[in-house]
Amino acid sequence: MAFSSFGDWLGLLATTALAQELAGSDYKKANFAIAGVFIVRLLPAVFLGPIAGVIADRFDRRRLMIVCDILRFGLYLSIPIVGNYLWLYTATVLVEAVTLFWSPAKEASVPNLVPKAKLESANQVTLLASYGTAPVASIVFALIAIAGAGLKHTKFATPADLALYVDALSFLYTAFVVYQLKMLPRGAADAKAKSENIGKSLFEGFKFVKSNKVISGLIFGMLGAFFAAGAVIGLARTFVGDLNAGDAAYGILFGAVFLGLALGISLGPKIFGQFSRRRIFGASLTVSSFFLLLLAMVTNLVLALFIVVLLGAFAGLSWVTGFTMLGLEVEDEVRGRTFAFVQSLIRISLVGVLAIAPAVAAAVGRHTFNVYHFHVSYNGAAFTMFGAGLISVTVGIVSYRRMKDRPNISLWSDIMMAFRGELGAITGATHQGVFISFEGGEGSGKSTQSKLLKEYLESTGETVLLTREPGGTDLGVQLRGILLANETGHISPRAEALIYAADRAHHVYSLIRPALDAGTVVITDRYLDSSIAYQGAGRVLQPSEVARISRWATEQLTPTLTIILDLPAEVGIGRLTSRDRLESEPLDFHERVRNEFLNLARVDPDRYVVVDAQQSVEAIQEAIRERVAALPLLKINKTDKKA
């Protein structure tokens, strides 16, 4: 796979370089020739993509891969030998068509070669083999360009020709490697495999995307990203030529893009792990587009390479974040259609941009501006890339605003919290299970509703643990007696906050975390938000300081969903038949508690849901079930969701 991908990237560089060579010194012709190579590489995927996998499943995968690699060897070998536009485009189309059959056979073979427990690691290696070889190919192409500079006028031996010969040999070697993989199963795959055509995939995907604000913002942003990428890819060779550089510089610039992508994909999620994916997607897309604007304005190759690495890094972060969100936020029953919808749109948008960008660049042409004694040349490629950057920046901002969680909190506030190490507890997914907390003032019905939810989830097949704070553990029972008994009397507000944090630390350590690790649904009657509201706002301490203590105590374990049962303080207190130490506090104390719960919900509406606790018990439970049914990790079936 690594050799095959290496050959594919080298072939892309060589065919675009050959297209420019065949165009000669005609600026417009060179732009259209290079764009034509990209377009013919994408067109087969647009039309054959949906059915290639079905056809591939009807053949022996090992034999199919061998035949496809031999065909690609012959086709790439023929391009420099024939040496004209018509065959360059024809062979490129045929190579891409063959690759469409090779790829699904390869993807389906990987699970047969590794244990299921190692499949995720195998997929990581697949990405490395696919994209990690691009910088290597660009370096090899640059070296071939330098070594072959003296062969420009020799038949069949220009630098682009040499690269194509190496490319062809890489596919022949891959065929030999696959031939030796005797452990691959023989015979056809699933003969009943079915696939939807592009029209149906687009229609089904559009219906789902239109109904989901997050996914529509995500796809809108991804289209913007690929719009900018198409402009860069389609104009890169012309842009390098405008900087008075040749094939070697083009290879290095191409490698710099993928070096940046690799850095963004591998390091970006770690560096920006505290930020929510919804925010970082739009923000990274906007930053990447800003670097595209800078790239269009520079006239120095070294500076352009540095900018391209940064552009690629943020584009890579946006790319990996976007596809991760598609996998996490789209329900399983529509995930395939949504991915097909996205892939089809991406291909169509790339074809459109690759066709339009060179036409715009060619129409703008070459221009030299005289400012005092300085002469600066800005040509069509730079102007077109600048325009694409402006469009992409706009798309990034719109996508960020559409997808932004915690709408009342600015990105700058998130950045400051990240420097203090506090943001991860708010935005990070710190556990794998489903963790639901009930919050609210006194008399709001948390105990009743949490028990009803437990019974409901157990009826759907879930294993559920119902607990409470304080008092969820043996130690918690003792601390609860101290905290709530009227005989305890006054406790220092800070001491009270620390005792609650101690109970919570032991509760998470001994009960909640083990249950979540075992795949249990955990429901708790009160959690850290109660301390923020009661010991923070109620006791007139800083809520952020109380929150920091609880996050440290719980190792930043955050609920998947927090349900706040809201009602006026005087109504809730009026429901009580007896009052403990906290319930006996003045009415204004409980009003401050209620307002803080509502403030928390306004800041992060994705994690919190506020339910009017003055409704009937049945109406409250129905609202809770409707929100809980939307959690992606639960087993609730479609009938339950509709109910």
Descriptive overview:
70% of the residues lie in helices and 6% in strands. The protein is mainly alpha-helical and 643 residues long. It has three domains: 1-195, Growth Hormone, Chain: A (Up-down Bundle); 196-404, Growth Hormone, Chain: A, CATH 1.20.1250.20; 420-642, P-loop containing nucleotide triphosphate hydrolases (Rossmann fold), CATH 3.40.50.300. A five-stranded parallel beta sheet has the order 4-5-3-6-7, with helices on both faces. Helix 3 (61-82) runs antiparallel to helix 7 and helix 9 (213-242) runs antiparallel to helix 12.
Number of helices: 25
Give start-end ranges of low-pLDDT stretches.
189-198, 637-643
Number of domains: 3
Strand content: 5-15%
CATH architectural arrangement of the largest domain = 3-Layer(aba) Sandwich
Mean pLDDT: 78
CATH H level, superfamily name of the largest domain: P-loop containing nucleotide triphosphate hydrolases
Q: What is the spatial order of strands in the main beta sheet?
A: 4-5-3-6-7
The count of strands amounts to 7
How would you describe the oligomerization state of the chains in this entry? single chain
User: Can you tell me the CATH topology of the largest domain?
Assistant: Rossmann fold
CATH class of the largest domain: Alpha Beta
The secondary-structure class comes to mainly alpha
Provide the gyration radius in Å.
30 Å
Shape: elongated
Distance between the termini: 48 Å
Helix content: over 70%
Main sheet attributes: strand count, strand direction, barrel closure: 5 strands, parallel
Summarize the structure.
The chain is 70% helix and 6% strand. It is mainly alpha-helical.
